[in-house]
Amino acid sequence: TLRLMTLFENVTHAPLKDCMVDSAANCVYFVVREGKAGAAIGKNGSNVKHVESMIKKNVKIFEFSKDLGTFVKNLIPQANEVKVKTDEKGTVVEIKADRGSKAIIIGRDGKNIKIFKELLQRNHNVNGLVVR
């Protein structure tokens, strides 16, 4: 993972916050610092394509935000409404989406939602993600 992060930063010149490898889906997820998503993607996606060809995996880029609601919208652009609930058990994020978007958000066998939960846990210490 550290090699992937170094390679990504050297190619894109965009500072990373987090990186997650999903070997089952042959995909790498990068979380770049605030305001650096455009630099990471490059003109017409050139940086992403270059990194993908070098590592032979799909690349997905998300922009980090200190604000949890904004970060959730960056992760899941299909979310129409984001609610953050905090209690003694922890923080739970509830999102509302259109009927057609729910399948995209959840993914086959819940693959996408697991990745979103993991990224939220690692970056904002969120305990749960609910799609309504």
How much of the sequence is in beta strands? 25-35%
Distinct helical segment count: 6
Quickly give the structural class: alpha/beta
| Cα radius of gyration in angstroms | 15 Å
Shape: globular
Measure the end-to-end span.
33 Å
Helical fraction equals 40-55%
| SS elements, strand count | 6
Helix and strand sequence: HEEHHEHEEHHE
- Arithmetic mean pLDDT: 95
The spatial strand order of the largest sheet comes to 1-2-3
Largest sheet: 3 strands, mixed
Low-confidence stretches: none
Can I get a quick summary?
The protein has 132 residues and is of the alpha/beta class. It has helices spanning 2-12, 37-41, 46-55, 68-75, 99-106, 111-124, and strands spanning 16-22, 27-32, 58-63, 81-87, 90-96, 128-131.
Characteristic terms for this protein:
132 residues; alpha/beta; three-stranded mixed sheet; 6 helices; globular
Overall description:
The protein is α/β, with parallel strands linked by helices and 132 residues long. It is built from six helices and six strands. The strands form two sheets. Strands 1-2-3 form a three-stranded mixed beta sheet, sandwiched between helices. α1 (2-12) runs antiparallel to α3 (46-55). It is globular and about 40 Å long. The model has no long low-confidence stretch (mean pLDDT 95).
